[in-house]
Design a protein that fits this description.
Length: 274
């Protein structure tokens, strides 16, 4: 029997309809949507759109890049990279429902032909060797136990000299995280490594570090703000639509895990050496 627990964690049936209803409630014209309209819900990682911009600036896109987003979720970051920089982006994600919604939102933002999605596993990427200039991934590795295979696959599909851009949640020295968190209700699907162990794996697999930024302190204030906002009613459009009934506890735990040094956050850009 395949273990579908990660996909089950992320699957909300009728998510597309739920998001469309929320967009209308928020006063958006669903016939004329831009990636900015969707950012409160489709940038599904800590720091949301500003974090995507920070990582993109570290990469230094010129617009000619062919990009793969691994664990692309609802497609917020991939659509943004295509829209803002002109890159051609493919997304791959384990969660079939997310891929369906990503395709719907791509049609609604007029980005078909510039972004595409495939349901698939990051441990067996459905792409040929050396097919991308940039491999990009935000907040997906924490659900993946076999990091050697994950980073080996990222290395395989990247061209030599190409860049790997990562935003990850890492293990801190303060002990296991408090659960639930956004990526797991319980420890069974949470696989955090320390930043040092992550870096060592990447280097052993043939990447060299261009930039490595600890973003824990910089993100803590926004995590605290999200935890405070979670005490009131949510806005029509937000990631609570994806996270389900535990979204408030997840926001509180995210801030607490950072405060107690149970989790750390980093952005990194690495180059495929050969
Ligand atoms: C927190 S979401 C982040 C989505 C997106 N990167 C973003 O920042 O908006 C984590 C995503 O990783 C995906 N994921 C987890 N394990 C995966 C795997 N082995 N292969 C592909 N995708 C995976 C999940 O389905 C989910 O969409």
């Amino acid at each position: 029997m395949p273990d579908n627990s990660v996909e089950t964690h992320y699957t909300r049936h009728d998510l597309g309809e739920i998001i469309l209803a929320a967009l209308k409630k928020a006063g958006k014209d669903v016939g004329h949507l831009t990636p900015d309209d969707l950012a409160p819900v489709d940038e599904f990682h800590g720091g949301q759109r500003p974090a995507t911009i920070r990582l993109a600036e570290l990469v230094g896109f010129t617009g000619t890049e062919r990009v793969l987003d691994v664990g692309s979720g609802l497609g917020g970051p991939s659509r943004f990279l295509a829209w803002r920089y002109g890159c051609r982006v493919s997304g791959v994600d384990l969660t079939a429902e997310f891929c369906r919604v990503a395709e719907m939102l791509t049609r609604l933002t007029g980005l078909v032909g510039r972004v595409d999605y495939r349901q698939g596993n990051a441990l067996d990427l459905p792409f040929a060797d050396v097919s991308f200039d940039v491999v990009w991934s935000q907040n997906a590795a924490m659900n993946i136990a076999d990091r050697d295979q994950l980073y080996r696959e990222m290395h395989r599909v990247l061209r030599p000299g190409g860049k790997l851009a990562l935003q990850e949640v890492a293990a801190g020295p303060g002990g296991l995280p408090h659960f639930p968190v956004q990526w797991a209700l319980e420890p069974g699907i949470s696989f955090l490594l320390t930043p040092e162990a992550t870096c060592a794996k990447l280097e052993a697999l043939g990447f060299h570090v261009v930039t490595w930024q600890d973003t824990t302190e910089a993100t803590f204030a926004s995590a605290q703000a999200r935890a405070r906002h979670a005490e009131s009613a949510p806005p029509p459009l937000g990631t609570h639509l994806i996270l389900g009934s535990d979204w408030q506890a997840m926001a509180r735990n995210s801030a607490r895990n950072l405060e107690e040094h149970r989790t750390k956050l980093f952005n990194a850009v690495l180059e495929r050496a050969s």
